[in-house]
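Our platform keeps sequence and structure together, in a single record for each protein. Because each token names a local backbone shape, the row as a whole describes the fold. One such record is reproduced below, unchanged from the form in which we store it:
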Amino acid sequence: MTVVRGCNLPDDLLYDVENHTWFSEMPDGRVKLGMTTVATALAGEIVAFTPKKVGRSVGAGKSVATIESGKWVGPAKSAAAGEVVEVNDAMTAKPSTANADPYDAGWLVILQPEDWASVKPTLTPGSAVAAPYEAKMDADGFAGCEAA
């Protein structure tokens, strides 16, 4: 587990650092997507999660869900284009699950990606995520997860 300024970033995931999202490859070719601890620390307590519906296509760089907290409303963006094949209904019922457990119970959607082979190399592996996240936190003026 990589820890950057108190933010946990599991080594077995792939990261879109710019958008504070993670991807987990599934054995059947689908990918699970969620928010990083950095995203949940920046947002504060998540109070609403509105995912795209199953069957909807999502373009690369486009939103798979709208996330709302007490201080922020915005998109959870996917680096990969694809079709939403599953949404986390538990997150819809209890959005703050993303704050408590962003890498397991707090996942957002599962995509059937269109061109994963070209997207995967653009993501940062967990084992190499420390330096890019340090730079992103510096650029954003973010002190860290404990300070949020």
